[in-house]
Amino acid sequence: MSCGRSEQRIQRLYDPRRLCDEDDELSEVEPDAVPTEVRDWLALTFTRSMTNVKRRGQEKPKFRSVAHAIRAGIMVDRMYRRLSSSAGLHVPPHVLLLLKNLDDWSFDVFEVNKAGDGHSLKYVGYELLQKYDLITKYKINSTMLDNFLLQMENGYSKYKNPYHNLVHGADVAQTVHYILSQSRLAHWLTDLEVFATIIAALIHDYEHTGTTNNFHIQTGSEFALLYNDRAVLENHHICASFQVMKHEDSNILAHLSREEYREFRTLVIEMVLATDMSFHFQQLKNMKNLLGMPENIDKPKALSLVLHCADISHPSKDWNLHSRWTDQLLEEFFRQGDREQELGLPFSPLCDRNSTLVAESQIGFIDFIVDPSFSVMTDMLDKILTPLQKDSKNMVNDVISEEVFEKKESKSTSTSSLHSSSSKGSKSTQGKYSFKTPWADCLLDNKSHWKDRAAKDAEERKRKATENQSNNCNSEVSSTTSSHQSKPDSKVVTSVSQDNKLPSEGKMGK
Ligand SMILES: Nc1nc2c(ncn2[C@@H]2O[C@H](COP(=O)(O)O)[C@@H](O)[C@H]2O)c(=O)[nH]1
Ligand SMILES: [Mg+2]
Ligand SMILES: [Zn+2]
User: Fold this and answer.
1) Which entry of 242, 304, 361, 446 is 20 to 30 Å from 390 by CA?
2) What pLDDT digit, counting tens, does each position of 410-434 carry?
3) 450-459 tens-digit pLDDT
4) What DSSP assignment string belongs to 269-326?
5) Is the shortest distance between the CB of 365 and ligand 1 below 6 Å?
């Protein structure tokens, strides 16, 4: 909003005539209802009747001026709210305070969700779009944006999932922001590409059913039929989100040109389809091949890998966050297992709540999925950004120069420079681009937590097995004794099977 217009807006707020005109609205306000010190503050701050305060004890300020003052106080609050977020969203001050940590890898989205009455996706979404100046850039109407984000929250809440809910959507969007801003990848992107990436992260699991693609396929669900068993959930997330974005009440893309809309949509579709886990190994293989080629990495592939890593990033966050996400995800898996049991279907991997080895499966997920993904992504960031950093250092007439770097950086994030290769968990090799890689330490830390947990679980299983055996043995002995007169040769089982594993245990839980 241009400065002139905002000044006019503020003047209008404070036009004394306006206050006087609306004085009557407050006429029923009982002046005594306002405590003396509040009345003095209001009178002192928002009215011209400075003398009122000096007269304290002689007489109460005239009712009219108190009413003016209260009206002015309300106006100040409204004006503050308007200014506290360019999109017209009122962000409660205690939520605003937590959003100050948006640039941190250890950002606690659960805390924001609790403080924000379950609206973390709305607040994180607003803050990110504002941080990259996209609301202004794409003239996004604040009511449309409000409706869009609330629709997203409703969709994420449709199936009451323990894990795939609006907090996950907010968490993935914030993690994508961290990667874009801390590595400075954001400077390699156009505004439209940043816009598409943030929206892709926010919508990527919209209306998730809390069950896997395979469950949809095995049960022949409507979605599986609609999408021919291919990336069933991911296709739905995209389709349903674009229907919301096209709706007249929540059309946040209204001011994109036809070409911009095409580019935006193509990017979002590619990024969200790439979050289909069945594509994981292919995606890493393709990226590794590209890293070995002299050509530049193409942006949709790079951004798809960033979103995929953010989507499976909680094992690379602080333990308090990761262990909470794990509990929620496994509960969601177990609920699917319960339904599979009811339907007479075999348990999907990790879905049997009675035999899944959680700690072991998490060690496997970190070793075989998360760690390799982040390692490939880190190499990809290196490859993309090192040449840009060299160019901008030489201040050659380059697409991105330091000024552009600084200008964009001040717009997109207020964190310190990334060239501090000495900072903990940062990736830098001689002459290479350096940026923070906090995920590396967290992955090591979490793996050791799971190893401790796995050892304790194994001990517990062994103890239970021994207990069961001895119980069985006792009941065998007692029934053998009583029936010994008839059958002298029954064998009493006394040893636990050699590998100390319960019969239902398989590798990694299934
Ligand atoms: N065994 C585990 N699998 C996990 C964990 N966190 C995520 N995942 C899997 O990744 C996909 C991510 O895609 P999404 O779009 O569905 O979020 C998820 O469905 C799981 O299959 C984990 O901690 N352990
Ligand atoms: Mg998904
Ligand atoms: Zn997800």
Assistant:
1) 304
2) 444 333 233 333 334 666 545 667 7
3) 999 999 999 9
4) HHHHHTT-GGGHHHHHHHHHHHHTSSSPPPHHHHHHHHHHHHHT-GGGS-HHHHHHHH
5) yes
- pLDDT tens per residue across span 35-74: 555 555 445 433 444 344 444 444 554 656 656 665 665 5
The set of residues, in sequence order, having a beta carbon less than 8 Å from that of 461 and lying 6+ positions away, is 500, 501, 502, 505
CB 445 within 8 A of CB 455: no
pLDDT at 90: 85
**Is the pLDDT at 504 greater than 50, yes or no?**
no
- State the ipTM, two decimals: 0.99
330 C-alpha to center of ligand 2: Å?
A: 15
User: What's the per-residue H, E or C state across 47-113?
Assistant: CCCCHHHHCCCCCCCCHHHHHHHHHHHHHHHHHHHHHHCCCCCCCCHHHHHHHCCCCCCCCCHHHHH
Return the closest-CA partner of residue 109 out of 84, 85, 133, 128: 128
Q: Cβ distance 162 to 331 under 8 Å? A: yes
CA 177 to chain centre: 10
**Ligand 1 binding pocket includes 134 (Cβ within 6 Å):** no
